[in-house]
Amino acid sequence: SPCKCPVRTFKGWGKWFNIYSKWEDKCETSILAKSSIAALASSNENFSILAGLLEDYSLDVPLSGKGPFTVFAPTNDAFAALLEAIPDVLENRELVDAVLKYHVIEESALKSDDLSNGQVATLNGKSIMIDTTDGVKINAANVIVPFDVEVSNGVVHAIDKVLIPPSE
C-alpha cells in the first residue's frame, strides 16, 4: 500500500499534488519520531489494551516524558492469551503495576542491533533475559513486527507474550 506521508508537495494546474514514497517504513518512521511511547501505544490499535493499562496505572505520563526508554510492548493478542490463562489477573493492581514496569528499560533506547544475550534491569527492578541466538527473545516472548520503532523518547518493540516478573 502507498505511504500516507507525502515526500514532496507541489502545485500545478491550479491544484496541489503529493508525491508519495514507495518506502512506507521510512515515511512512518518520520511521523513516529515526533510521537512518544505513550502516544504510539494509544494511536496503534494493536496496543490498545497496553495503552489503556498505561493510562489506568499513570504510566502514560512518564512514558510521554523525555526518556530515553526501551519498551517491549505486548500486543492485544498477547494480553488476550494472558487473560484466557489467568482471567482475574487485572484485578491484582500490584501485580499489573509490576508487570507493566517489567516491560520498560529506563535510560536506554535499545534497537535490536544493540541487544545482546544477557540480563537487563527493568523499571520494576527485576531483570529480563535477552536471547539473540535465533531472532530476539525477551524471556519466553518473541520480538515481532513492528520492532525498532523509534519515537521521540525511545524505542518500542512489539512482543507476542506478556512478561510476568519473577516473584520475590
Describe what you observe in this structure.
- With 168 residues, this protein is an alpha+beta fold.
- The protein has a single domain, classed as FAS1 domain.
- Helix content is 26%, strand content 30%.
- The protein contains five helices and nine strands.
- The chain has helices at 24-32, 37-43, 48-56, 76-85, 93-101, and strands spanning 6-12, 15-20, 69-74, 104-106, 118-121, 127-131, 137-138, 141-151, 154-159.
- The strands form two sheets. The protein has a seven-stranded mixed beta sheet with strand order 4-3-9-8-7-6-5. Strands 1-2 form a two-stranded antiparallel sheet.
- A hairpin with a 2-residue loop joins strand 7 and strand 8.
- Helix 2 packs across helix 3 (48-56).
- It starts with 5 loop residues before the first strand and ends in a 9-residue tail after the last strand.
Order of helices and strands: EEHHHEHHEEEEEE
What is the terminal-to-terminal distance?
48 Å
Quaternary structure state of the chains depicted = single chain
The fraction of residues in strands falls at 25-35%
Unreliable spans are: 1-32
Structural class: alpha+beta
How many strands, what sense, and barrel or not for the largest sheet?
Answer: 7 strands, mixed
Domain FAS1: 34-163
Protein name: FAS1 domain-containing protein
InterPro entries: Adhesion/Biosynth-related, FAS1_dom_sf, FAS1_domain
GO cellular component, one term: extracellular space
